[in-house]
Amino acid sequence: MGALDYLSNFCTVTSTRSKRKPMQTVEIKVKMDCDGCERRVKHAVTSMKGVKTVEVNRKQSRVIVSGYVDPNKVLKRVKSTGKRAEFWPYIPQHLVYYPYASGVYDKRAPAGHVRNVVQAFPASNAPEDNIVSIFSDDNVNACSVM
Predict the structure, then answer these.
(1) What is the pLDDT of residues 15-35, one digit of tens each?
(2) Which residues form the HMA domain (predicted)?
């Protein structure tokens, strides 16, 4: 059976087709001044393989690309137009605990957005904090003796 196994290696069909990229939405910050800049960026991204939709918002300097694309390739294609581009660095303000902390607040950010940075969370899971809150006047379900 050794010769049969040897010959079967030549007959097997292997698929070298790569896996399809997952559907993604890529948000990029691009400084655009005029309609020409907007058209150039939109055309560069629309011509990429796998792109389904492209939304350009010149007022916010934002480009949203949806499709089966690699985010780094989209960023590279936008930069090839000669514009300064980076991934969208902002998140909605209501998702941040301390929106006015240093490094978070950015006056160039669109209305209602702040810069996405790592910050300390106010909630703690220390046992002594939980014990103190049990007998608090603010706790409605506190000790019934009080």
Answers:
(1) 555 677 788 999 999 999 999
(2) 23-86
H helices, E strands: number in the chain: 4, 6
- What is the SS3 assignment for 139? coil
Quick check: pTM over 0.85?
A: no
Encoded tokens for 50 = 């796998």
Find, among 59, 28, 65, the residue nearest to 45 by Cα: 65
Q: List the beta strands (DSSP E) in the chain.
A: 24-30, 51-57, 62-67, 85-87, 90-92, 113-115
Cβ of 69: how many Cβ atoms within 10 Å?
22
Nearest to residue 63, comparing CAs of 22, 32, 95?
32
| Residue 63, φ and ψ in degrees, nearest 5 | -125, 125
